[in-house]
Amino acid sequence: MDDTLLQISKLDFCIQDVTLFLDTHPDDQEAKKYYKEGMKHLLKMKETYLKNGGALTNRDGKNLENYINEPFPWTKGELSCGCMKNACNIPLM
Question: Which residue ranges does the record assign to the Protein CotJB domain (predicted)?
């Protein structure tokens, strides 16, 4: 996994975690500040990653080819099977 993508994943996890914390501690100002600052940083990182041709999901549209051709994170660069990522037998219309 690309280092930038790893950093995005880590920060995304932290944001999700603080969001869950805020569900039970809605008045915690420090957590709210962490969320707001973290979201600003996360959105900036995602925007930069997408502009540089990275693909965060298969729904990013313009970077679909990059997403399809990237190896799965658990294969460490070995494309052993593309059937789950490259094939779709469900008609759209």
Answer: 4-74
**Pair 56, 73: CB distance under 8 Å:** no
pLDDT 10s digits, 62-74: 666 766 677 666 6
What residue has token string 């008609």? 91
DSSP at 56: S
Is the pTM value of this prediction over 0.70?
no
What is the percentage of the chain residues whose pLDDT exceeds 70? Answer: 61
- Close Cβ partners of 1 (under 8 Å, ≥ 6 residues apart): 9, 73
CB 85 within 8 A of CB 72: yes
Q: How many C-alpha atoms does 31 have within 13 Å on its Cβ side?
A: 15
Radius of gyration (C-alpha) of the chain in whole angstroms: 17
